[in-house]
Design brief:
This protein is of the alpha/beta class and 276 residues long. It has a single domain, classed as Rossmann fold. Helix content is 39%, strand content 14%. The protein has a seven-stranded parallel β-sheet with strand order 3-2-1-4-5-6-7, sandwiched between helices. Helix 4 links the parallel strand 4 and strand 5. The longest helix has 29 residues.
Amino acid sequence: MDLGLTGKVVVITGGSGGIGRGLVLEFAREGANVVSVDQDSGDHLVAEAKRQGLAGTILPLQADITKRESVEAMLAKIHERFGPVDILVNNAGGGAKLGPIEDLDDATRNWNAAINIDGVLNCTLTIGKDMLAKGSGSIINISSNASLSAQAASMNVHYGAAKGFVNSFSKGVAFEWAGRGVRVNTIAPGWIVPHSSEHVQGPGSWWNKPALKELGKPEDYEDRLDSGELEKKGSIPIPRVGRPEDIAYLALFLASDVSSYLTGQLISVSGGAYMP
């Protein structure tokens, strides 16, 4: 099915992380002009797209999405290269570190709030102006099963709470902007694992946090699932490891006009780990 995304201008935050990489490459595969926003150069994404012969263009840009002025400067560069934005995927996020909630320190709390809340706010309100001005657009916010399940939020409670803000914010904006042609939907990933450690380049990625290194290398997860050693196996009805493209495929659908009658929806992509 042709999703009609060729030539669309797509902004994806956290493009060099595990899920972000999958999003950037799959939108480029559909022929979109993809802006990958992260803290690294993003050259590896351009090289990978060229290697695969993807139809779209990838423009890596560095920006601090926790600061409104940085997002505004980034948008000015996007306008110079591509024009107004059609699709925004607020993917950047994560937890600073794992630990009991009673051990939550100010640095962790502030980091979680800045990236998961302020980043989504800044990008939505700044880039959303493009969509409101032309009366069309799709915003896709990447939340987490940690915002839906107490078990999923265990040892990462504040992160789950921050993603809970994303869920409520998405619903409210979806209601306010629906009549103005802008749709807002939310994807809540479960345990999504990159295919390789080499696929996680962004320094802010969840997989590059010291606490998460304790959970093992991404490339080991398939073997751990098959051997029964994977700690989350028992809570995932579909017996396979979730991958970044599983998130990207749904994002492509929500970004396209095929889903033009959908807004304000929250969908968990987790192999059935969360069933409302």
